[in-house]
Amino acid sequence: MKALLMKDCFVLWKQLRIFIFVMLVISVFNGGFGNVFVVIWAAMLPYTAMAYDERSKWDQLAAMMPYSVRDIVLSKYVLGWLCTGAAALFTLVCQLLQTVLGSPFAAFDPAANLIGLCSSLCVLAITSPMMFRFGVERGRLTMFLMIFLGCGTAGALGSVVVDGEGPARLPALLTLILPIAAVVLTAVSIPLSMGLYRKRSC
Amino acid sequence: MNAIELSHIRKSFGGFAIQDLCLTVPSGTICGLVGENGAGKSTTIRLLMGALRPDGGTAKVLGTDVSSPEFQDVKEDVGVVLDEAYFPEVLNAVQVGNIMASTYRRWDDSLYQSYLRRFDLPEKKPFRDYSRGMRMKLSIAVALSHQPRLLVLDEATAGLDPIVRDEVLDIFNEFTREEDHSILISSHILSDLEKLCDYIAFLHQGELLFCDEKDRLLETYGILTDTAEQVDCLTPEAVVAREPSGYGGVRALVRRDLAPSGFQLERPTVEDIILFMVKGAKNA
Question: Structural domain tally of chain A?
Fold first, then answer.
């Protein structure tokens, strides 16, 4: 798996440089929303790596090298976790520094970071099986549908909570639900992706 | 021991099927897999490497069933070059070397570097800027740098200029000097296969028409160029296929053992045999 992760890092290196720059700008000037956005964007990076793999038909070559299906699938999840984890940590540190320095853009909120991190892990867990089954081109449509549904649900949930017990309750609820959802969805998603990847290649 | 053993392999995809494929490549030999586009060469390679699951039959590589978990380790001993399946295009040769060093336990970096120099491959140039020939050369360098016992090459000489192609064929010949080293190579360039191979396997529309020693194949058949009447004198079993030649004559591929001794038969090339076989199959 180390080799596959190394390959993805080499493949994404140029994109990562741009990503780090955008992450810096957004997390410095765009506060809480920016932090969540950056972390969810980081969850999409494995799909960029997959798109490069597909373009060169790397998966056909990889199937003949000593990589197991488990390694191939899990490496993409690990890449997603590393990217989202790093993005969450980066934005958190950025906001902490801004708070300490008294910046007018400071929005240090670990709960928002946790929500962003867990949301991106959920997005990764929900969309990855489709990517492994249909490839990035067709899987991306499913991903947009999922994100659209996710945003709709979040909006509906937000309005219910606001109407009910006030907006302050929403983050507390999400910080409780989202980590559990991320763990459960990931536990289901990985074996599902492995099964779908095997089906696709056979 | 056999390097490759395919036994009664079947695989169908809608309009195309590999039918009851039995193919054996003895250890220490080079087998050329020949066939038109879409004959099933790449599918056969994917089946024998366990990248495709057959509908029936068994495949063994270096004595191990490819559907068994143990085959994962055997892949360390197999170098693969595929037609049009490469490393991601943003990588360069150095990065590919680093990735392969973490992939194969017996990766030999100094050998890889020597192949890069031998093939004049730039180390830092991204793969996307490589010509097709350079891509093939990099894939061959990778396939040879982890001390494999078997090379599986799908159109590995395609896109190479004649000088490099000759050099690559020499490298493949060198590789099989070790008695347990074997090669399965598919190619459209039949002259390469004639130069390189001990065995020739011919796939036609998913069916293996023959797999035989090259020398025996060349001794079994002969080319008869004569009048149509003379060719008609031969038994139908003796004539594999025929085609009109200039001045109203006929050129036919015939079985030497079934042709009367008075006929003057030319020695065919592998290309002659394959082309006549395809025509024979189409006219049948």
Answer: 1
A41 lies in which domain range? 2-201
A55 touches B: beta carbon within 8 Å: yes
pLDDT digits (tens, 9 = 90+) for B97-146: 999 999 999 999 999 999 999 988 998 898 889 888 888 889 999 999 99
When mean pLDDT is compared over A84-88, A95-99, B140-144, B250-254, the highest value belongs to: B140-144
Written as one letter, the residue type at A202 is C
**Alpha carbon of A83: minimum distance to chain B alpha carbons (Å):** 20
Closest Cα in chain A, distance from residue B53 (Å):
5
Nearest to A202 among B49, B53, B80 (CB): B53
Q: Is B80's CB within 8 Å of A14's CB?
A: no
Looking at residue B41, its amino acid is: K
Side chain identity at residue A193, one-letter code: S
Give the pLDDT confidence score for residue B149 in this predicted structure: 94
CB half-sphere exposure, A160, CA atoms < 13 A: 7
Report the C-alpha gap between A77 and A44 in whole angstroms: 11
B2-205 has which CATH code?
Answer: 3.40.50.300
Most confident residue range from A182-186, B206-210, B240-244, B251-255: A182-186
Round to the nearest angstrom and report the end-to-end CA distance of chain B.
Answer: 37
The pLDDT of residue B185 is 94
Q: Which of residues 42-71 of B touch A (CB under 8 A)?
A: 46, 49-53
Residue with the bigger pLDDT between B263 and A55: it is A55
Residue A83 at interface with chain B, using a CB cutoff of 8 Å:
no
- Contacting residues of B for A58, CB less than 8 Å apart: 85-88
Q: How many CB pairs below 8 A link A and B?
A: 79
| Residue A156 confidence (pLDDT) | 65
Task: Report chain B's mean pLDDT, rounded to a whole number.
Answer: 88
Q: Which chain B residue has the Cα nearest residue A70?
A: B72
Q: What are phi and psi of A37, to 5 degrees?
A: -60, -45
Domain boundaries, chain B: 2-205, 217-283
What pTM value is reported for the model? Answer: 0.83
Tokens 């592998």 correspond to: B270
Chain segment B58-107, per-residue pLDDT in tens: 999 999 999 999 999 999 999 999 987 788 889 999 999 999 999 999 99
Quickly list H helices, chain A: 2-29, 31-42, 45-55, 58-62, 69-101, 110-164, 169-201
Is the Cβ–Cβ distance between B150 and B62 less than 8 Å? yes
**From start to end of B193-257, where are the E strands?**
199-204, 207-213, 221-227, 239-244, 249-255
